Amino acid sequence: MWMEITLTKGKAEGPNKLNAFDNALLDAGIGNVNLVPVSSMLAADTYEIPMPKLEPGEMTNCVLSHQYSQTPDDVIAAVLAYAQSEQMGCVVETSGVNKLKQELEDEARYMAEYMLEKRGLEMTKYKSIIQTHRVEQRASVVAALIYHNPTRH
């Protein structure tokens, strides 16, 4: 079995929590699809590809990290990472408010390494993305791993 994935991220302000989140999804290029949360496993043969065209309303599997704040000057962050072994991969997400970027990145790496270790697997690849934003009024950040159906394009 093989998979195709895309990592994406976005940030935005909005008049309320829902609209800030929706605007961040739009910024990430995934605001016009139905996001279906899935658990965080990858096939052994997983390939990262650029974001393909997603049709409006399309059902799109993802692992999503997000954070919201309405406190001006808060720094919000969303992190998404994956670790790959020869046999399979694991995806992790974390987020925070006013946390050090390095602390969040270290947390994500630890979780991904731990998931592989518990399965008796050795990490061969690791990748992460982080989206940060300093809140003006009401803001949201997202980081996502999108699963694609390889037969669709």
Protein architecture, described:
With 153 residues, the protein is an alpha+beta fold. It has a single domain (2-152), classed as Pyruvoyl-Dependent Histidine Decarboxylase, Chain B (3-Layer(bba) Sandwich), CATH 3.50.20.10. Helices cover 20% and strands 48% of the residues. The chain is built from two helices and nine strands; from the N terminus they run βαββββββαββ. The chain has helices spanning 17-28, 101-118, and strands at residues 2-13, 34-37, 41-43, 45-48, 59-69, 75-84, 88-97, 125-134, 139-148. A five-stranded mixed sheet has the order 2-5-9-1-4. A four-stranded antiparallel sheet has the order 3-7-6-8. Strand 6 and strand 7 form a beta hairpin. It is flat and about 45 Å long. The chain starts with a strand and ends in a 5-residue tail after the last strand.
The count of DSSP E runs of length 2 or more, i.e. the number of strands, is 9
Could you please say which CATH topology applies here? Pyruvoyl-Dependent Histidine Decarboxylase, Chain B
Instruction: Spell out the helices and strands N to C.
Output: EHEEEEEEHEE
Architecture, CATH level 2? 3-Layer(bba) Sandwich
Strand % is over 45%
Rg on CA atoms, Å: 16 Å
CATH class, please? Answer: Alpha Beta
The CATH superfamily appears as Pyruvoyl-Dependent Histidine Decarboxylase, subunit B
Distance between the termini: 17 Å
Residue share in helix: 10-25%
Q: Structural class of the secondary structure composition? A: alpha+beta
**Average of pLDDT:** 96
Q: Sheet bearing the most strands, described?
A: 5 strands, mixed
Number of helices: 2
Poorly predicted ranges: none
* Largest sheet: spatial strand order: 2-5-9-1-4
Count of the separate structural domains: 1
Assign an overall shape: flat
